[in-house]
Structures are given as structure tokens and as C-alpha cells.
Design goal:
By secondary structure, this protein is α/β, with parallel strands linked by helices. The chain is 31% helix and 18% strand. The strands form four sheets. The protein has a five-stranded mixed beta sheet with strand order 1-2-3-4-5, with helices on one face. A five-stranded parallel beta sheet has the order 8-7-6-9-10.
Amino acid sequence: MSNHSSLYLLLFFYVLFSACETSISNNLSDLEEVPNQYAEGFAVFQGEGFKVIEVKQAFPGEHETFRYLVVEKADMEIDRSGFAATVELPISKIVMTSTTHIPHLDYLGVSELLAGFPNLDLISSTATRSLIDEGKVMDLGSGAQANIEKIIDLEPDWVMISTLGDDLKNLEILKEAIIPTLLNGEYVEQHPLGRAEWIKFTGALLGKFEESEKVFKDIEANYLEAEKLISESILDKPKVMAGVMYKDIWYVPGSDSWGARLLEKAGGDYLFNEQKGTGSVQLSYEYVLENAQEADFWLGASDFSSLTEMKNSDPRYAHFQAFQKGNVYTYTSKKGPTGGIEYFELGYLRPDLILQDLIKILYPELLPEYSLYFYSQMHEK
């Protein structure tokens, strides 16, 4: 073999083997972004056999962007440096820490992947409860006290952490244990469909991205169809109050919140609309009485089972017109067998059902065949 032939052969093998390790540019413009319609807190970028996920809003306030790599092809050589976590597909077992993540598994048809969860009693999902009853899901403890040693012993493919509680303190521990840990900031989104769109985040991490896009499109279509029922020309909108007292403080949703936005889309006149904020606002009983005594409807009346129980808890509730007319509705009555409230589990993913419920309550003639899903009217006993 000539020297030239040997040189060409060496160059051929060098190019072949060096091409096996794909380098990922920090410049995401080199990748194709899969655009979100409503969610602002995360973004998904598609590469050749891999995805890059950016979580830009994992919790309120300014913070660094968390970048995750999802390797979609087995045994793919790829530069994993510079990422907060790397997820290798396929996935066989995972850990989640918020009930709002559980429906993602159900809707993507992979409930059996859940290996551990803190406080199993909070889960109402029928599919997941069956797995729990079979002993296939480990109870990791209660809330922020989740047993980190149990998580490490499970050796899950990844852990999804909700930043709403104190779970962030486990981030470094899990990183040291080389367990990919992803931050889910869905609750920071204030557009109802923005929270629902986080199913794409979960879908990308499970290798079920296309399926997650279809699930979301169906929910979006249902939501927009319901939204069309409410005409902008409605002049006499039903007046709506919300919340209950706790230790003499009345808690209501702020006017910029997810719940208030749903109520607005349902054609309700929210009587606390001047109370700005994305979370709960604290008011005095006197203020609420002055501004909402003549409300037509009272929504989200806590976890009372009847009007009688409400009145016995605090006789002042009976001073409101909505209470006297029996127009009081709660979203906490639909529960799983161990007490998990379905609204708190499924509501983020299914704002279309919440919107339909609200329209049915405020304008029953617009949805004559629809039955309330989350909400229920409270009766005397």
C-alpha cells in the first residue's frame, strides 16, 4: 500500500470515529426549537437524536436557566458537559414529587413507570392507585420530608421536582448521587393552557413528545371551544365571590391568578378583581362582606361538605346572599379512595374541564348536556 493510500485510510478512520461523538453547541440557534403556544417557563429544542430542554422559570423570581439533555438514541456518543442533568432514553422507572405530575403519566399511557412518590394517599388517579395497591410504588414519606435515601436506593432514571415546596434542598444531594433531577415550574404559569402545556416537558423526558403534543392539542381545542361560548357582549355578568376564612383572615385568589383568569374566561364578574397578585390575597371579613354580600355565586368554598357545616364553622357565612340562595360551590368534594383531591391533581392539565364547569354554573343554558366534573353545589346537609 502506498504512503498516500495509508494516509487517506488513516484520515477516513479519524473522521469516522471523531464523528461518533456529537458536540452540542451552546448556541441553541443551531437546534430547531419546538415552539410552545402558551407556556413561557420552558422550551424544547430538537437535535439529531437528542433534545435540549431549557427551564427558564422553575420558580418565581430571577434565577439561572436550567438546561437538560435528553439522549434519544441508545449508546449515542454525545458531549454531556454543560447540562444540569442528562436523561437517557428509554425510561424504565421514575420518581415524581407533585400530584399534578401524575396525570401526565396517565394521559401518556405510562403510569407503570412511577416507582416512588411522597405520601401516596394524596394520589387519586385510578391507574396509579391500582399500582399502589399492588405494591409497585414506594411511599417516600410526607412532602418535603421525602426520604432521600429511598429515592437513591430506587435508582430511578430521573426525578421530577416541583419547586412549590421545599424539595429544592434535595437537588444537590441527588446530583451527587448521579440521579438526573428535573425542575418542573408549571405552577408559575398564569395562563391556564400554559400550565397544561407542561405535559410536553414530561413527554420529552419520557420519549413521548409526539404523544404529549397530541394530548395538549386535544385539551387546547376543548378549552377554546368552551371559551367561544362566552360572548364579549355580555353586559350583565353574574357577580362571583370566592374563598373562605382561616383564623379570621379571608383568603381569595389574586386577580392575576390562574383561577381568576379561568373565571374571567367563563364570563364571571369577579368581585375581588382589584386585588392584584398571582397567589392568594388576605382580606378582612368586613371588607368581603361590604364588597360581596350581594354576590350571585360563591365559588371555591373550601372543604366543607354542606352549607350547614359551613354555618356551624362560622355563622357569619350565612350573611351572604349566595349562601342564602344555595349558590355555593366547592371543588374539593371529588376525592380518591385515600382522600386525594382530584382538582388539585388533574386541574393543571385539564383547565378545559374547569372552564366548562364554571360556564355550566354561571350560564347553565350554554351547556345543557354537560355535567359538572370538578365542582359540586353544596346543599343544606
